[in-house]
Amino acid sequence: MGDYVELPGVRTWYETGSQLAVVPGTSHALPMEKPAEVNRIVLDFLAHEPITTMMPVRRARPAAPTDGDPA
Length: 71
Known about the structure:
By secondary structure, this protein is an all-alpha fold. The chain has three helices and no strands.
């Protein structure tokens, strides 16, 4: 079975501002296999502002309260 990412997952990542990092030659144990690479990827992600895209991302609006409670 090959590696693939299904469209609903990609859409969710895009809508939430997530990023995908692919590290060749690793498994699901990436943090144990290449800890320095994981640290570099995470710190780089946290250090930079989100990238501005040409198409705005639609964000879900919170549902209006139904019982008068603002929460």
